[in-house]
Amino acid sequence: MKKDLRVQYPLWQMAFIVLFGFIAFxxxxxxxxxxxxxxxxxFSVELDALESFLLLGALFITVLxxxxxxxxxxKHNKQxxxxxxxxxxxxxxEYLEQDEGMMYITRRAAQKVYTFFVxxxxxxxxxxxxxxxxxxxMIFGILILAWMQYLIYxxxxxxxxxxxxx
Length: 166
Description:
Layout: H1 5-28, E1 31-36, E2 41-46, H2 49-79, H3 100-130, H4 135-165
């Protein structure tokens, strides 16, 4: 079960969201300037030492994780030639519906995620309307919602896989 991509996929997405949070954090303190001369534009970004370290570390880890994740998808495609996946497909990878059981699990998990968003989005919008928050907190709030989405999905999928396979 632990090696099944259907269970691992939400964990990968959650890790990418955390890395994006580090990237967003390191870039929010950056001072950016846009220069326009008569013939060209130039853009400069200045980062502090900690922010530079976080940004470079997060970018390195992101590239490493994308490489490993691509290898996992390639391995999945070799093991399941009739159900190949692509990183570039429009349909989310959560919909790994190989059979009726997986369709049920996916539908159940999607219902729980939808219920979460029905309550979380209006609450977050209200918080942003009432309090004057910076752009960083808005991005951070969106990342938290995205992370929670995959956590809910993961818990639901793992619960169904645990019932049948362990």
